[in-house]
Design a protein that fits this description.
The complex is a heterodimer. By secondary structure, chain A is α/β, with parallel strands linked by helices. Chain A has 11 helices and 14 strands. By secondary structure, chain B is of the alpha/beta class. The model of chain B has no long low-confidence stretch (mean pLDDT 95). Classes of the chains: A alpha/beta, B alpha/beta.
Chain lengths: 333, 310
């Protein structure tokens, strides 16, 4: 073991952690490119590419026209031909426009060429509701989990924003990296020397005894707020951050659930065929069912209307109510 | 137009006859699911391939067998792939819609209509950023011309001056829909002209004209002139696929046969019936060998179904 002191973490915003990870990868590997709308001198819609255009120039940081389908296709083709493009799709709602090259081409390239070609492509896109209306707010994360060949990463804090991006840009297959509008301005300690974050490893964000709450992305922050409130009422919640939805770390969830005996799945997207439904199917098939509740958006489009948006999206109050009801229905033995 | 020299004419004829013989043999088999054949369209793929360099890349839509053979993909490995055998180009996993053999300059097919157009632009971007002089060619049909991604990619390729040739093989029909019923533009090459690139419509039944036109376009692209668009008008002598029903009358098909690009070149070369028969024996022999190679291989191992997924 080395006796040298651990590198000092730096405080940075979530958006800065992304830029920092992309910059490090670009310095290390000349094949890393950034492509997307407004990623150039504008620095990205959320300034998550700040400074990259100035440092690396227009050949490697490429502003794209509004053409998501061709943008992902060009990224996939460049990836197949030896580059490592990071394609930025401003909002996840627009990812649908590029599903053909992502799902029909990039996700299948390694398989259909029997390993001769791969598409080391990172598609970074922004999910979540923040007043922008029915076609700029969706969390379609669960759709992607069912596509063989794609990694789906969804960091919840600046350290993971850095480490998962660093890992994604070194991975030899397509990665969809989902960030969140409400996370960009959140600060945190980031150790840029912490090494890569392997995919498929969840993190326990809070230890607890009574119930396991699994979540990802921004909803982890909401879960932690709810857990703090519930603690005041004497309810002890364990909060697990999935970090990657595919691959899914079922081991960590199972170990937690064997102790707590109750499962809450929390996501900002729809619960029907959602992340929680899949987590439950996988973990219950290993250990048998446990009392559960799943929480997600109400089954309606997420409006920009402030009343409706707030109603649709899970908040600490809804989580507290659901956990309290779960404990009432399934009290400790 | 610059005609091919006698040696290249013979090469072109043999290559077109090879494709026709290969596809005819394949169509007779029942053990391949279904296939998209290119009878009547051979001059487009062969004319193009006459002027490509080894380091150039060809990408296609799903109608890929003729272009792959024209580019020099091994017929045995190709037949094995189409029959799903382990000795196939891609271990039998790709099939006709997704063939690839990058080492032969055939970067690959992608069977979603229009889907490979943007991918080809990505390959062209990679070549340009690597300061290579390679040119990338995307072959697609008239059916792909209605796809938004073609228009998106034309714009970006022109804007970035990518080393990319858009080669539209207009065989006249998108499954059953005549091209001019689907498209508002009077010439499909007008789509390229809109974005300011050199664009032309030619007779795609004349292999020498295809070679000469593609050769000039590729030379200009190689010099850094940016992308170009060629519409080559061909004919489809068979139905859309080996399992699709034919929508045209026998009379109409018989009339189309009189425009066969292979017969046209053979007539221009004034070959005797004996010379043609000798060529036919050569290409048939190669197809027999390809079928024997494929049949000697088994299907892939069931235990490998999950390999190369991630």
């Amino acid at each position: 073991m080395s006796n040298s002191p651990a590198p000092k973490p730096r405080k940075m915003f979530f958006r800065e952690a992304i830029a920092s990870a992309v910059r490090a990868a670009m310095l290390e590997d000349p094949t890393v490119l950034v492509m997307g709308q407004d990623v150039g001198s504008f620095g990205g819609s959320y300034r998550e590419f700040d400074g990259l255009y100035r440092e690396f120039g227009a050949d490697r940081v490429r502003d794209m026209p509004v053409a998501e389908n061709a943008t992902i296709g060009i990224g996939a083709g460049a990836a197949a031909a030896g580059f490592r493009p990071l394609v930025c799709i401003t909002y996840m709602d627009f990812l649908m426009l590029g599903f053909d090259p992502l799902i029909n081409y990039a996700a299948k390239l390694r398989y259909k060429t029997a390993g001769a070609l791969t598409a080391p492509l990172v598609v970074k896109t922004t999910a979540g509701a923040q007043g922008q209306g029915v076609a700029h707010s969706q969390c379609l994360d669960a759709w992607l989990m069912s596509v063989p060949g794609i990694v789906v990463a969804a960091p919840s804090n600046p350290q993971d924003a850095f480490s998962l991006m660093a890992q994604a840009l070194r991975h030899d297959g397509p990665v969809v990296y989902i960030d969140h509008k409400r996370l960009f301005p959140s600060p945190g300690e980031v150790s840029v020397d912490a090494g890569l974050q392997p995919f498929g490893v969840a993190a326990v964000r809070r230890r607890g005894e009574d119930v396991t709450i699994i979540s990802h992305s921004y909803m982890v922050q909401v879960a932690l707020k709810a857990a703090a409130r519930l603690a005041e009422a004497g309810i002890s919640c364990e909060v697990i951050d999935l970090r990657t939805l595919a691959p899914l770390d079922v081991d960590t969830i199972e170990a937690s659930l064997r102790r707590t005996g109750r499962l809450v799945t929390l996501e900002e997207g729809q619960t029907t065929c959602g992340v929680g439904a899949e987590v439950m199917a996988q973990v219950f098939s290993r250990m048998g069912p446990r009392p559960f509740v799943r929480i997600g958006a109400l089954p309606a489009p997420v409006s920009s209307n402030p009343v409706y948006e707030a109603l649709c999206i899970p908040d600490p109050e809804r989580i507290c109510d659901a956990v309290t009801a779960l404990l009432k229905n399934a009290p400790p033995a | 137009m610059t005609p091919l020299d006698p040696f290249d004419r013979l090469r072109a004829l043999r290559s077109m006859m090879q494709i026709r013989a290969f596809e005819t043999a394949l169509a007779k088999r029942k053990d391949h699911g279904f296939q998209l054949l290119s009878s009547g369209e051979e001059a487009v793929a062969v004319g193009l391939s006459m002027v490509l360099r080894a380091d150039d890349d060809l990408l296609t839509g799903g109608r890929s067998i003729g272009p792959a053979l024209a580019r020099g993909v091994d017929p045995g490995a190709l037949m094995a792939e189409l029959l799903g055998r382990a000795a196939g180009l891609n271990g039998g996993r790709a099939g006709r819609g997704h063939l690839s053999d990058p080492r032969s300059g055939f970067f690959g097919a992608h069977a979603v209509v229009g889907g490979n157009i943007s991918v080809a632009a990505g390959v062209a971007l990679a070549r340009k950023l690597s300061l290579s002089e390679a040119v990338v060619v995307i072959m697609f049909g008239d059916g792909a011309c209605g796809q938004g991604v073609l228009h998106e990619t034309l714009n970006i390729a022109a804007n970035w001056r990518l080393p990319l040739l858009f080669l539209c093989n207009n065989n006249g029909l998108s499954v059953s829909t005549p091209w001019d019923a689907a498209m508002a533009t009077p010439r499909l090459s007008d789509l390229g002209a809109t974005f300011g690139m050199p664009a032309t419509t030619i007779d795609g039944l004349d292999v020498e004209l295809v070679a000469s036109t593609a050769g000039e376009a590729i030379a200009a692209i190689r010099k850094g002139g940016g992308p170009a668009f060629i519409e080559a008008k061909s004919i489809r002598l068979r139905s859309h696929s080996t399992t699709a029903r034919e929508t045209r009358t026998r009379e109409a098909l018989a009339e189309l046969e009189t425009h066969c690009p292979i017969s046209a070149l053979a007539a221009r070369m004034k070959l005797s019936p004996d010379e043609i028969a000798e060529l036919q024996r050569t290409v048939d022999g190669a197809v027999d060998a390809a079928e024997r190679f494929a049949e000697a291989s088994g299907y892939p191992e069931p235990g490998d179904v999950l390999t190369h997924v991630q």
